[in-house]
Amino acid sequence: MHLHILGICGTFMGGIAAIARQAGHVVTGCDANVYPPMSTQLQTLGIALTEGYDAVQLDGVAKGADVFVIGNAISRGNPLLEAILDASRPYTSGPQWLAENVLPGKWVLAVAGTHGKTTATALLAWILEHAGLQPGFLIGGVAVDFGVSARLTDSAFFVIEADEYDTAFCDKRSKFVHYRPRTAILNNLEYDHADIFPDLAAIETQFHHLVRTIPHLGRLIVNGGEESLRRVLARGCWSEVERFGFAAVADTGSDWTISVDGTIKLGGAPQGMLDRFGLIGRHNQLNALAAIGAARHVGVPVQHSLAALAVFRGIRRRLELRGIVNGVTVYDDFAHHPTAIATTLDGLRRAVGSARIFAVLEPRSNTMKLGTMKAQLPASLAAADRVFCYAANLGWDVAGALAPLGARVEIHTDLAALVESIARECRAGDQVVVMSNGGFGGIHDKLLARLAGKS
Questions:
Q1: Neighbours of 455 (CB within 10 A)
Q2: CA end-to-end span of the chain
Q3: Are 94 and 13 in contact (CB under 8 A)?
Q4: H or E element: which one contains 228?
Q5: Percent of the chain with pLDDT over 90
């Protein structure tokens, strides 16, 4: 079968491409924005990419396509999509294709939540891999230990990042309702995706729909400290539930707890120590705890999970070290929501102590571009000593929104000027965190090169 994928360079659709290729299908695709790591992964797989969405693809690279897989970034009015519809060519969404062609018969382990999905999914997949279960997986990022974001195996288990974003132009349900998991992590839940959800209640409804798909003998691993998730479960739950949370937080009712020092307990009984874990931050302790709980549901003992986590090497674009030049450390991070920004900076602060932290932010997600979260940005950036914001093509008052940060903040609309300003202020020992859910114009390499040339 020949699949032609529209929006192939998105992390999810790129994963679909990798799995389809492994399954023996011919895969081609197109996209308007191509940048690593997904472009690199597709190139390595030998998948032909076409730049843009010109309708002539129907008579060219996609002429023999048996089905068109439409990414959720593709809207009506897209010239290739319109040509597909006019020609009555067969099409489907990525989640639907996965549900029909890959997931049947699998024990699906799904990881949902506003934050930490990619990290927790990668941790869970790695635990199962380390335990010899060789799971298939689809992760919204590239785990260093796997080197790819997705793979297909003969294993009974499939681990998937369960996104609440909508499925496609023709299916406005959340992606995760297609996956029918037997094990599901509900990591957290707050307002996001302002371009498709009017309020938090609308997202809670989608999570409720996910809960409704989990069998009676399935299990939910739920963050016990989230009021929003308590509301979701109060609407109906027919499966086993295990809650997790920080040991120091009272009244969470958690079955699984983790202390600051990494002590893990289940039902108050010690299970071991997460003391050789390479990811920094309290939020990553919770991600690991959730993964441990989910892995136990498929029979992986806690001690085996801890051994796996001790050698986990991280995920690209999640506080990923990009280089150290003249004593200045540069990281790449996917944080694009105020809560994610705050937890990333808090984790780094705990790790580097009094070293200066420079936060370099590109408000690029649809929610950020709408300015929905602008009032929360100053508090989320509070742990940074300096804040540099790239404000090109934003329709809201960035300077006004970040005014509470005072002289710590600097706003730029020119990328070269931004790089120059950061490099000029950096000195040995500084920690620079670049935060964006896109390629950010290759700023990481530009900054490292500029620092290398600094006298």
A1: 3
A2: 57
A3: yes
A4: helix 227-234
A5: 72
